[in-house]
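[Q] Does anyone have a clean structure-token version of this?
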Amino acid sequence: MRPLIIFEPRSRPLASRRVFFRRLARGSLAGGALVAVSLAGGMAGYHYLEHLPWLDAFANASMILSGMGPLANPQTPGGKLFAGCYALYSGLVVIIVAGVIFAPVIHRIMHKFHAEDAAAVLGADEASADDRARPAPRKSRRQTKPR
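[A] Here you go.
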């Protein structure tokens, strides 16, 4: 299986804007898909374990997934366990989705800083290489005769 997003290493030049926006779109689609699957799982859990109608299950699952908390308190033991586990899972999903969506932006910023640092170092190395390429002034090799 191919990775979702592959970033260029520090030694390669900064990717074009077209590549960057494509990565941003892929990350957004992956994040949206994860949110949709998580919402569907939460709706199913509330519908089958708490016997809520689909619309109420959607409202509860979306409120927990967004971090706001449930609208209806769970009544059954299975529903209470599900609500607790789903709330913990939802907290992780929010962090993961934010990471997936913003990874291309953070990578581009970091790559740009490293590119500027590399250019500064490269400029200093080239200057020192020029200094090394110049021959040092010759010392006189005239031998003096002992008197």
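[Q] Thanks! Anything notable?
[A] Confidence is low (pLDDT under 50) at residues 127-132.
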